[in-house]
Amino acid sequence: xxxxxxxxxxxxxxxxxxxxxxxxHLVEALCLKEKLDLSALYELPYDDFNLxxxxxxxxxxxxxxxxxxxxxxxxxxxxxxx
Length: 82
Description:
By secondary structure, the chain is mostly helical. The chain is globular and about 25 Å long. Helix 1 packs across helix 4, helix 1 runs parallel beside helix 5 (67-74) and helix 2 packs parallel to helix 4 (46-61). It has one domain (3-74). The chain has five helices and no strands.
């Protein structure tokens, strides 16, 4: 399963959880080029922490042509040209 699908499942599975808020903040930081408090990532359960790392790796590599737009859609961020 690809990273975006894993993130989507996580967001749907526990919509109001602290973990979901951390993922949303991570994606916002990536999309909007904001600072991120890394200590919040360390508080995630191990599997979610690994997912956060995968998200950052995919973002950096931009290996999917629609990664940035899809991430914005998952956390309901408006589209902003990079």
